[in-house]
Amino acid sequence: MSKALVKTDFHFPGQQSVYNGKVRDVYNIRGRELVMVATDRISAFDVILPEGIPYKGQVLNQIAAKFLDATSDICPNWKLATPDPMVTAGILCKGFPLEMIVRGYLCGSAWRAYKSGVREICGVKLPDGMRENENFPTPIITPTTKAEYGEHDADISKAEILSRGFATPEEYATLEQYTLALFQRGTEIAARRGLILVDTKYEFGKDADGRIVLMDEIHTPDSSRYFYSEGYEEKFAKGEPQRQLSKEFVREWLMDNGFQGKEGQHVPEMTPAIVESISNRYIELYEHITGEPFVKYETDDVAARIERNVNAYLQK
After folding, report:
1. CA-closest candidate to residue 106, choices 98, 115, 95
2. Which of 1, 36, 66, 242 sits most deeply, having the most CB atoms within 10 A of its CB?
């Protein structure tokens, strides 16, 4: 089986620091630019799972790069270049401590909360009588705090965001505007590929000039959930699970095996067959959402390839 990149330890020219996130390692270059490496680590329930997923980093990075380019007319974004299939280089921004989650359908964690009787999420009131996987009349924004490493994201309302000074009213209005416009564009692109963009998250920051800029990934299977359009209505009418492309299937496998990230629980064994099936699902989403065949780059020494490509980019 192909090798997965789960750890990096680069020393790039001009490197000032490195931040290791759940799945990305971010290198600060001269305090002006970031080199973001999408590793093959995978997380669920805010826990990094013990096995890496071959090609996952390449899938995430290449999908994000394509969508950053496809939405640059909606709002500015951080991307400058993709020097390697698993790397994006971009401008350094000061991030808002928020994840702007936008939902077009009631499913996942929102459905689990709704099923337990919750009728308000992040200050957004939900009507009675909704069913799992039902679409909202208009998409709703349910932000979370941006957790530090090892901590859990927490739901937060617009009122709390403003009262805690995470954004000014003007800034938050822009974040909402960008979030809904990006989701609309993502929905249109997905529809052309026979997919439904169900929900996703966006992260924003401010660049050196104070502009609000879209950061990080966009419309990847780690940050988004997709249903197949074909069969959606029939499955919804029958109350059957939707056929989907997202990381939710990983969460469901973990829950079926008694793990939800709670204290005292242990991650079930990730056999080679499980790892390969997850890898194949990521590749499947790439090909569906881009309409292009996935090209597997060599994985014999991924770290050496990345170092070579990034060094060549930085020396230009």
Report:
1. 115
2. 36
